[in-house]
TrEMBL record:
The keyword Ion transport does not apply. Pfam families: Mito_carr. GO terms for cellular component: mitochondrial inner membrane. This is Mitochondrial arginine transporter BAC1. Keywords: Membrane, Mitochondrion, Mitochondrion inner membrane, Repeat, Transmembrane, Transmembrane helix, Transport.
Length: 306
C-alpha cells in the first residue's frame, strides 16, 4: 500500500496530465462543441464540417476563439485529472492484491476506472457546462444571455437556474465517464502491456536515452488509442450532454436517452455522432500528451518505474 507521500504524488502527476491535455486538445474540443450545439437541429446546419467550423472561428474570433472557455478547463481538468488518475491508481492497487499477476486484469481495471469516472463526473459537470456555454458563443451570441468570462457564466447560471442549473447534464456526464473510462483504461493497460512485452530488450539496458524514447513512444501510442476508444464509445452521450448544457430553455429535457432519441429523429445517426471528426482528431494527441505527462511525472516523483 502506498504511503500518504506517494498518494499525494499520484495526484500531482494526474494534474500534470490534465494540463497537458488541455493545452493540446482544447481547440479541437471547441470545434466539437460548436458542431454538437449547432449541427443537431432539424434541416439546419450552421457549419458544413469541422474544417468549415474551424475556419469560421479563426476568421471571426482569431486563435483566441479556439481557446474560448479554456481557463475553466485548466482549473477543472487539472483537478479532475488529479482525482481521476489518483483514484484509479489507488482503487487498482486495492483490488490488485486479490489477483497477483503481471498481466492486466479486467476485474481490476473496469471497477477501478468506472469508480474513478463516476467520481470525477461531479467536478466535470459544472466545469464543462461553463466551458460549453462559452464555446458556443460567437461574435453574435445565439443565446439570450451573453457571458463575458467563465466566472460571469457561472454567476449568471446560478442566478437564473440555481445550483441545479450549474449541474445540468450531470446524468449524461456520469454515464459518459463511468462507461468511457472503463474502455479508456482497458485499452491503455492492455496496449501498454503488450507493447512493453514486445519491446523489452537487453539493448535498452543501461541506455537512459533509449529507455526514455521507448517509454514516450509507448505512452503516445497507448494514450492515443485509449482516447479514441473512449470517444468512439461515448460520443452520443457527449452530444446529449452538450445539448442539455447549452439549451437556453430551462424546461428542456435533461434525460440523455430522451435527448438522443430526439436528435436521432431530427438528424439521424450522423446527428448522434456530431463532432466525430474533431473529437477523434483531438483524442489521439490530447490523450497521448496526458498519458506521457502522467507517466513521466510519476517517474520523476519516484512512484513508478517503466
Amino acid at each position: 500500500m502506498a504511503g500518504s507521500g506517494d498518494a499525494a504524488k499520484e495526484y500531482i502527476a494526474g494534474s500534470a496530465a490534465g494540463v497537458a491535455q488541455v493545452v493540446v486538445g482544447h481547440p479541437f474540443d471547441t470545434v466539437k462543441v460548436k458542431l454538437q450545439a449547432h449541427n443537431t437541429k432539424a434541416h439546419r446546419k450552421l457549419y458544413k464540417n469541422a474544417s468549415h467550423c474551424t475556419s469560421r472561428i479563426l476568421v471571426e474570433e482569431g486563435i483566441r476563439g479556439l481557446y474560448k472557455g479554456a481557463s475553466s478547463s485548466f482549473v477543472g481538468i487539472a483537478l479532475e485529472s488529479s482525482l481521476f488518475f489518483g483514484t484509479y491508481a489507488h482503487a487498482k492497487q486495492l483490488l490488485q492484491g486479490k489477483y497477483e499477476d503481471g498481466k492486466p486484469q479486467l476485474q481490476v481495471i473496469i471497477p477501478s476506472a468506472a469508480c474513478s469516472g463516476a467520481l470525477i463526473s461531479c467536478i466535470l459537470t459544472p466545469t464543462e457546462l461553463i466551458k460549453c456555454r462559452m464555446q458556443v458563443q460567437g461574435k453574435d451570441a445565439m443565446h439570450a444571455t451573453w457571458y463575458s468570462s467563465p466566472l460571469d457564466c457561472a454567476v449568471k447560471t446560478l442566478q437564473s437556474e440555481g445550483v441545479r442549473g450549474i449541474f445540468r447534464g450531470g446524468l449524461a456526464t456520469l454515464f459518459r465517464e463511468a462507461i468511457g473510462n472503463a474502455f479508456f483504461f482497458c485499452s491503455y493497460e492492455y496496449s501498454r502491456y503488450w507493447m512493453h512485452s514486445y519491446t523489452d530488450s537487453p539493448r535498452f539496458a543501461g541506455n537512459s536515452n533509449l529507455i526514455l524514447a521507448k517509454d514516450v513512444g509507448i505512452g503516445i501510442i497507448s494514450g492515443g488509442i485509449s482516447g479514441m476508444a473512449f470517444w468512439t464509445t461515448t460520443l452520443p452521450l457527449d452530444v446529449a450532454k452538450t445539448i442539455i448544457q447549452t439549451d437556453p430553455s430551462p424546461l428542456s429535457s435533461r434525460n440523455p436517452l430522451r435527448v438522443l432519441s430526439m436528435v436521432y429523429r431530427r438528424a439521424g445517426l450522423a446527428g448522434c455522432y456530431a463532432g466525430l471528426g474533431p473529437t477523434l482528431a483531438r483524442a489521439f494527441p490530447a490523450n497521448a500528451a496526458a498519458i506521457v505527462a502522467w507517466e513521466y511525472s510519476a517517474k520523476v516523483l519516484g512512484i513508478r518505474g517503466s
